[in-house]
Description:
Number of helices: 6
Structural class: mainly alpha
Oligomer: single chain
Distance between the termini: 72 Å
Helix content: 40-55%
Amino acid sequence: MNATSVAIQAPERAAPTEHPPTTLEERLTAASARMDDRLRVAGLAVDVSTALRVPDVHPVDLADVVRLPDAVQPYRPPVDFYPTPAAAILQRARARLERDGWTTGVLADEDGALCLYGAIRAEAGSAAAESDALATLLEVIRRHFPGEASVPSFNDSCRTPRTPLRLMGEAADLAHARGL
């Protein structure tokens, strides 16, 4: 197959002058003329770019924006609970903490917020299941914070719920992996 070729032409340039400027004064005059030309083209480009006026837009008032404190996490219902008992308790306890709130110093405060131990105790159906969940959670806590004495002491040492919630999720994963 023969394709017809199309010649592409380069843009036309100004014909070179027969006598290039030789003196400094002539070269400066030529450079000044080129710069004046470039500045004129740039000025036209700015005029074209700013000719379209964007309609006035009212800025968003930040007081109207609802923001939650860093410590509060939005409630997201769990997709599916683990089939193993201890893992399901830990997962439900984490979901309860996200929904009802997290606290320190007490099992439950007057607003219904719970500590880690209180959430596990509320979700456990038996003492054996509660014990398995607490043991798994304490193991995960000690992986990250060696020497931690108990789940309640770890809970009371935290300032925000981020770390306790993250470790509760890790404990649920570990309990499920072990079949607890």
